[in-house]
Amino acid sequence: xxxxxxxxxxxxxxxxxxxxxxxxxxxxxxxxxxxxxxxxxxxxxxxxxxxxxxxxxxxxxxxxxxxxxxxxxxxxxxxxxxxxxxxxxxxxxxxxxxxxxxxxxxxxxxxxxxxxxxxxxxxxxxxxxxxxxxxxxxxxxxxxxxxxxxxxxxxxxxxxxxxxxxxxxxxxxxxxxxxxxxxxxxxxxxxxxxxxxxxxxxxxxxxxxxxxxxxxxxxxxxxxxxxxxxxxxxxxxxxxxxxxxxxxxxxxxxxxxxxxxxxxxxxxxxxxxxxxxxxxxxxxxxxxxxxxxxxxxxxxxxxxxxxxxxxxxxxxxxxxxxxxxxxxxxxxxxxxxxxxxxxxxxxxxxxxxxxxxxxxxxxxxxxxxxxxxxxxxxxxxxxxxxxxxxxxxxxxxxxxxxxxxxxxxxxxxxxxxxxxxxxxxxxxxxxxxxxxxxxxxxxxxxxxxxxxxxxxxxxxxxxxxxxxxxxxxxxxxxxxxxxxxxxxxxxxxxxxxxxxxxxxxxxxxxxxxxxxxxxxxxxxxxxxxxxxxxxxxxxxxxxxxxxxxxxxxxxxxxxxxxxxxxxxxxxxxxxxxxxxxxxxxxxxxxxxxxxxx
Length: 597
Description:
Largest sheet: 8 strands, mixed
Distance between the termini: 39 Å
Helix content: 25-40%
């Protein structure tokens, strides 16, 4: 027994720690079908982590997938729109078939996203998702008007942000089961207006007060702020939304789930297919401008290494971070830049290589948590996403479960006391908050049960508890605002005004508080008290102490209720003595009816 108590004590010490029992969260009794499924999972994935990347058929997504696969530590699911194109790319770039699984998804359709998530869940068996990289996106700055998704939502916001929002919500249960899950969102300098690229080039990313989201964000409403369409701003707004989502999910879920949420800016990939909808002259000269004028050029290979680092590097398991790379875009370039065609590691807008990664500052717009929470709310409504309702993970230990159940009941009972039927509280308008009929009936039933229990077994427990815990110190019963008490006895005017209001020759009744002696019984309390007589009033606390002493010192308790006697008679011209323990209609304490045997 002593050993068991020692183990229990150790578990209770661990209980307050965040995630103390996270490793126990998925414990369950193994069944034959579960064993077979576990074996199939191990055969398919082995010890490899499971990573999902959207947009792996080209650009940043392709380079990141290849970097993950080269480590031999990941099985990568590539979420792509064009399966034929992906097959060709996988063959040319020699994607390892045993570790790479392409799956079709159309990010311009919420139904397609849900189908993709179901397909992934069927494929992964019991394997948890360890990495989710939200990379895919479109950039349509030259469009004169909006294009619409299958859900009648402007395409840029739907593909870049809302579909990834929905995908994360669908995969959250699996991510929560991973030992070290990471969700990474590819942001942009254009969504962070505390930089030259984000704050100095019009149009500026700005969601305003989410007027478009509030109105449902469907045709003809094409922008997050409810204004007219601007293709370049739609892209920047979608990246701002992704970066705000990263911070929101970090605040809501990181502590309780252990899932890390972060965003990155991989640099300006000037030769990326992202610019495929730009005019020919732009695609030709923009990379030259970024390489040799601004020095902000980043090749696909380097950008892929950056995104791979955030997914793989143990240093990047931190949540709530906007990752960038330092070093300075023009530092140390010179002739080497000309010789290598601008392909210099550290030539990106954020600069640097593997060891120069740092936590970049985020703009006030990205850090606006009030707006971010509203964005989360409206995005949930638009996509009809379902997010997990989290609670603290606890131990499966039966003893702790019983303790938890009792605590839950006691907490609910105490909360019920605060609900006064009819007046549970007041709203912002100062009017009482209406409560449901069920709550009213529940409060009444709780009060009735509490009264019965409290006047029976509850009284005994109260006496025993008071004896075990001891009396409260005087300091706990007063505060710094209490008036200074005098040493003189408290005098209360117990005179009841009679018809002769001019009578003033009566002396006030003085009430003292001597300790209760064992000899004090109901027989010694007079049935009638004269006007000016000082009477001894036993306080409740002293009486309970005496009763508790009797409980512990003798073998039993016997309470006899005596017949009510000696009814006090008063006349209109006499004052009644004050007795705070007095029962209705009697002239002496209600405790005079009890006798401790």
